[in-house]
Amino acid sequence: MSTTEAEYISAASCCTQLLWMKHHLEDYQINANNITIYCDNTAVICLSKNPILHSREKHIEIKHHFIRDYVQKGILNIQFIDTEHQWADIFTKPLTVERFDFIKKNLNMLIRMDTDLQESNILSNLIDDFPLICKQDPPDVRAHYVYEHWKATGKLSNTVTF
Amino acid sequence: MQNEFEMSMMGELKFFLGIQINQCKDGVYVHQTKYTKELLKKFKLEDCKVMNTPMHPTCILSKEDTGTKVDQKLYRGIIGSLLYLSGSRPDVLFNVCLCARFQSDPRESHLIVVKRIFRYLKGTTNLGLLYRKSLDYKLVGFCDADYAGERIERKSISGNYQFLVRI
What we know:
The complex is a heterodimer. By secondary structure, chain A is mainly α. In chain A, 43% of the residues lie in helices and 8% in strands. In chain A, helix 1 packs across helix 2 (42-49). The radius of gyration of chain A is 22 Å and the shape is elongated. Classes of the chains: A mainly alpha, B alpha+beta.
């Protein structure tokens, strides 16, 4: 057992999910070819590209090697990504605040927005590219959003001073 | 379709099984604010202090805990309710699943960790997922593994997620 094996198995399970999604998308006439898997282990990338069985990887179960078929067919494409930008980190270990917030942002996790622009909050217009705040929230909660946003970006439009 | 099945048009989808859906011009926004608030109320944790993360980075949970036993029904109930959040809250998914491993013999120390998730949720009730609108999509996967990350049996933890991203 090695880190490579652990990463390899995780890549294989990622592959199964992607193939399932690919078949799903085909039903909607969306053809997804050359799907990219980002992995933070170079050994895994080499393993998946090399169709020859090496003596040092004998212990990895054969069922995990099916990822190779798809790499060879050109359906999958495994690429390296540095650990900092490996967003799947959030699902493997508890993280520190900075890293946690960084990944959360990249997962498209945002605070609630309002759909009706006409009645929307004045506060959201004060700051550039600030997501609209829900009008149902009490004022102090809304003010909290603004404060958080300001803290995170350090950006405040010229029109308002706090 | 109306001839075949009994159905009626009720307008735009806004609320379904605890999941709130906002359809705006940027895309579809899915969140469970109401459900999260109800959870906090149900487990009487509305007045707890807010935390920045759902779990401490060096948190260690063990099965051989000699602490006082916790009502199993309550523990399982909490885990079950939190699991339903995973639809819109991938950030607490890992932590909930970690705590779910101790369901057979929950102790005080496990419950404290679970409560920390609630404290985190309290500070971020309005967090949700935004599915952005686009014409061109590309399927992308990310995979990662934590070698021997599980403290009890020294198993590895794998995590991966799939994205349909804009080109």
